[in-house]
């Protein structure tokens, strides 16, 4: 397995307190909150070269199917990237963890068969630019697999999300913006949205601004308009 140990002089994202919280919370959510099953569904059937955007602490790595020849996993936050490197060593497919932000993916055009965005599009600073970069590095017909927080469909829950995004939520949760509409943004970026389903996490009990989620697939068109 080839792992690059490059670290830029200054990371594009620096959330050390959130990184420590997320590293603990995400592992618990996978084990007890059913998130691991959603990761399995998200990645099922992938093959070839895959770029994962905002890999966090690498919890997706264990779920990549054997037909995947390589995963290039971008993570801009240093503490999470170090955890992702450890997870990559345990993965059953080759995983290369690299520093980098979604808005400037350090990869050549059309170099990947698929891209994965998992609970990350809510945090990128420039969502249209990030999606444009994902589209650039995908081959024509390549898939974008997404599992993301999404704008609630009810008026009151959506208003709560927007209020949270205007106050302390992004500061507490690593730049997360719960009121973004990932489906609309993916379509606006030129992808063809395929099958998807809406989720609530957790499925029962108290709901948070981040509870509404969407899991699905989109494709880069074979021909550019």
Automatic annotation (TrEMBL):
Keywords: Methyltransferase, Transferase. GO terms for molecular function: S-adenosylmethionine-dependent methyltransferase activity. Gene3D superfamilies: Vaccinia Virus protein VP39. Residues 51-145 form the Methyltransferase type domain. CDD domains: AdoMet_MTases. It holds the Pfam family Methyltransf_11. GO terms for biological process: methylation. It comes from the Bacteria. PANTHER family: METHYLTRANSFERASE LIKE 7A (PTHR45036:SF1), METHYLTRANSFERASE LIKE 7B (PTHR45036). This is SAM-dependent methyltransferase. It comes from Streptomyces violaceoruber.
